[in-house]
Amino acid sequence: MSNFVDYVKIHCKSGHGGAGSAHLRREKYIPKGGPDGGDGGRGGHVIMKGNAHEWTLLPLRYTRHIKADRGQNGAKNQLTGAYGEDIYINVPIGTIAKNEDGEIVGEIMEDGQEIILMEGGKGGKGNEHFKSSTNQTPRFAQPGMDGQEGFIVFELKILADVGLVGFPNAGKSTLLSSVSAAKPKIANYAFTTLTPNLGIVDYRNYKSFVMADIPGIIEGAAEGKGLGHRFLRHIERNSILLFLIPADSESHFQEFKILENELQEYNPELLDKDFIISISKSDLVDEELRKEISAEFPENKKPLFFSGVTGEGLMELKDAIWKQLHG
């Protein structure tokens, strides 16, 4: 998923309402027929719609402006103008829309869900509404109301069963490519993954679950350093967290505590999620070193060892994940 896009800003404009009609009836045998102007039609809404077949905001990446149609004007014989056509913005499940002030306008939680981001302007009333005992033939009608206009920011929080949490180069991309068909870029530099990658992991008896490799965390991410909040935002939507600490780390338990602290600082509720601790790159250490590493952790947080390169321990890791998801 190298083309994963999780942030898009679009200028949106809903349709103006149509004007009301100030028409007066003029028929051959009714010389003073009175007002019969119809109302203007509502302008088109700008609507965000959930689409389970979309995984990314990429289709919107090059969309700069979205504009709904205006409502039609009212007409004689009390005919109401047609509504302006609504415009739909299809987004993946897990998308949040915010206005220019950063306020959340809506959040898509399921397929087919619709949220009006900007309402179309109301149509103006025709002169038929303004008839009274003192004014039998009003020659005026209301103009249509203006639509709304402004920027909308779309942000996608990944919906995955398992979120991989670890420092850059912890082996997250290697693990994902080993257990799924995802092909993340793998290289030895500070931010291996700048955009999230999703992979479908096959499990026993044709079962599967979704794993997300999320941009590498660094100390201070909660304060906005490195990829900061853009990274942490994705973790909120994962069912369980899989902490990855490389076998060649200088202090395995300390590294776990730093990662845990970053989540705590950002959102303490993240620590209420189920999680698994794992030691990646375990092909680099022998059995004696594994015992030493395991001894660093308390009894209730013993890590699982695996190697994404050799495949050792991957089935046990998948078993543990499945048990947490469905236990």
Description:
With 327 residues, the protein is of the alpha/beta class. The chain has two domains: 1-156, Distorted Sandwich (Spo0b-associated Gtp-binding Protein, Chain: A), CATH 2.70.210; 160-326, Rossmann fold. The chain has five helices and 14 strands. The chain has helices at 172-179, 228-235, 252-266, 287-295, 314-326, and strands at residues 7-13, 46-50, 65-67, 87-91, 95-98, 104-107, 114-118, 149-156, 160-165, 197-202, 208-213, 238-246, 274-280, 304-305. The strands form three sheets. Strands 10-11-9-12-13-14 form a six-stranded mixed sheet, with helices on both faces. β5 and β6 form a beta hairpin. The longest helix is centred in the C-terminal third of the chain and has 15 residues, at 252-266. It starts with 6 loop residues before the first strand and ends with a helix. Its EC number is 3.6.5.-. Its main location: cytoplasm. It is an enzyme of class 3 (hydrolase). GTP binds at residues 166-173, 191-195, 213-216, 280-283, 307-309.
Number of helices: 5
Structural class determined from secondary elements: alpha/beta
Tell me the CATH architecture of the largest domain. Answer: 3-Layer(aba) Sandwich
Task: Tell me roughly what share of residues is in helical segments.
Answer: 10-25%
Mean residue pLDDT:
84
The count of strands amounts to 14
Shape assignment: rod-shaped
Radius of gyration: 29 Å
List unreliable stretches of 5+ residues: 184-194
- Beginning-to-end CA distance, first to last residue: 30 Å
Q: For the record, what is the CATH homologous superfamily label of the largest domain?
A: P-loop containing nucleotide triphosphate hydrolases
Q: For the report, how would you describe the main beta sheet?
A: 6 strands, mixed
What is the name of the CATH topology of the largest domain? Rossmann fold
Total discrete domains = 2
